[in-house]
Specification:
This protein is of the alpha+beta class and 412 residues long. The protein has 11 helices and 20 strands. The chain has a single domain, classed as FAD/NAD(P)-binding domain, CATH 3.50.50.60. The chain is 34% helix and 31% strand. The strands form 3 sheets. Strands 5, 6, 12, 13, 14, 15, 16, 17 and 20 form a 9-stranded mixed beta sheet that branches. The relative contact order is 0.17. Bound molecules: flavin-adenine dinucleotide.
Length: 412
């Protein structure tokens, strides 16, 4: 085990939701752990006031499996006490047909399907948890610029150099640095990339009719639109706020971004078929280009990729961070198990076992999303008929539907 301020056993680069929770989970290993991020997380920036009607525009639909992971890392209690919105149902339908599916927690004897949580609420709780874990040295802002493998007493290790001129050494380097991962680029991991030709517009809205904790998703040939129900956990919460994720072809996204709030609200209300009445208020809009990326391998000697650094997936199924949490959980379990078996940390088999557990599952989910995107963009009549019939068929077939729900909830 290493023991100076610059030598670590495990260094996680990227303190987003995936990297920061992984750091929490590894804190009990007795190893020296470093967590580096190019940006210092600032809890003061969290928009928390109902009076100002502000929510973080970046939210995640958290599966029950992810909730368990957040419990395991010690962050869930604070998340649950701040602002989290359990959702009990989901209605998915097709814009041009009769196809629709309703998912309900009751059908599978659960109290909710999952939770809508602002990313900044998760991060705030995870960083508060890290404050209680002196085993993890958090260094931010500290942006990685270079990495190099070297040998020391017959063991291979990594040297990390940051933009501010510091350098660190580590036995295991974990790239949790998001979809444009520097670690992935520096280590020359091969990546398959599909440009979705989609932009995602995200914002928060207030609706005339309460959402009743039900998520809505409507598929159009220009892309899917999701309304994710938000609660602010205050007494008398009126269930009128939703987070919007609207994936669109770029031309339409540009038009919508250029509209006034009133024009945008009218277009949005029409696109969700006024299921929640008028859109009464719209917060600032943000647009992101959507790309699907997948690293062909997640591991090399001394290096592992987790979360969006390994795979970036279309947000239509709300699975990105859920898959990332499952990566972090699998890697943490492999490291704990290796330590129990007294294996040296630079043993490549530890990382390979992590990859074997995760790569097939992640790829399966990515292909499913790719299939969905094409299926709903397809104009040909037989395909449109089949998808509508398929959706309604699934809706009537309890076993298939329950299996779909269980999978989305993070069941293996
Ligand atoms: C519009 C939209 C909606 C989404 N909705 C959902 C949803 O409902 N449910 C869901 O599960 N997922 C959703 N996702 C996906 C989810 O947001 C991502 O999967 C998740 O944020 C990835 O987390 P991460 O920790 O892997 O990466 P990130 O959150 O990208 O964190 C990476 C971190 O690495 C740091 N970093 C980068 N480069 C360096 C460097 N060189 N040196 C040091 N640090 C560095 C960054 O500062 C950052 O803090 C959505 C995504 C989008 C775009």
């Amino acid at each position: 085990m290493t023991s100076t301020d610059t030598d670590f056993d495990i260094t996680i680069v990227g303190g987003g939701m995936v990297g920061a929770t992984l750091a929490c989970a590894l804190a009990d290993t007795g190893l020296q752990i470093a967590l580096l991020d190019g940006v210092k997380f600032d809890a003061g920036k969290i928009p928390f006031s109902k009076a100002e009607l502000t929510f973080d525009p970046r939210v995640s639909a958290i599966s029950p499996a992810s909730r368990q992971w957040l419990e395991q890392t010690g962050a869930w209690q604070e998340i649950a006490a701040s602002r989290v919105s359990p959702y009990t149902g989901m209605q998915v339908w097709d814009a041009d047909g009769t196809g629709s599916i309703q998912f309900s927690a009751k059908e599978i004897n659960e109290s909710q399907l999952g939770f809508i949580t602002e990313n900044s609420v998760i991060l705030k709780s995870v960083y508060n948890r890290l404050d209680q874990l002196p085993q993890v040295k958090v260094m931010a802002p500290s942006r990685v610029e270079n990495i190099e493998r070297y040998m020391e007493s017959g063991h291979s290790r990594m040297k990390i150099t940051t933009e501010d001129g510091n350098s660190y050494s580590t036995t295991v380097l974990i790239g949790a640095d998001g979809s444009n991962s520097k670690i992935r680029q520096l280590a020359d991991f091969e990546v398959k990339e599909w440009d979705y030709q989609h932009q995602a517009i995200v914002t928060t809205v207030r609706t005339e009719i309460p959402h009743r904790a039900i998520a809505l998703q409507r598929f159009m040939d220009t892309g899917p639109l999701a309304f994710l129900p938000l609660l602010d956990n205050s007494p008398g919460d009126d269930q009128h706020f939703c987070s919007i994720v609207w994936s669109l072809v770029p031309e339409r996204a540009e038009q919508l971004m250029a509209m006034t709030d009133e024009e945008f609200a009218a277009a949005l209300g029409g696109s969700i078929e006024h299921k929640l009445g008028h859109i009464e208020w719209v917060d600032k809009r943000f647009a992101f280009p959507l790309k699907q990326r997948h690293a062909v391998e997640y591991v090399q000697e001394n290096i592992a990729l987790v979360g969006d650094a390994a795979h970036t997936i279309h947000p239509l199924a709300g699975q990105g961070v859920n898959l990332g949490f499952l990566d972090a959980k699998a890697l943490s379990a492999e490291i704990h198990s290796a330590l129990k078996r007294k294996r040296p940390l630079d043993e490549f088999a530890i990382l390979r076992r992590y990859q074997r557990q995760r790569i097939g599952h992640n790829l399966g989910m990515m292909w499913l999303m790719e299939g969905f995107k094409h299926l709903f963009a397809e104009q040909a009549l037989p395909v449109r008929w089949l998808r509508n019939a398929g959706m309604s068929g699934v809706d009537r077939t309890g076993i298939v539907k329950n299996q779909l729900m269980r999978q989305a909830m993070g069941a293996p």
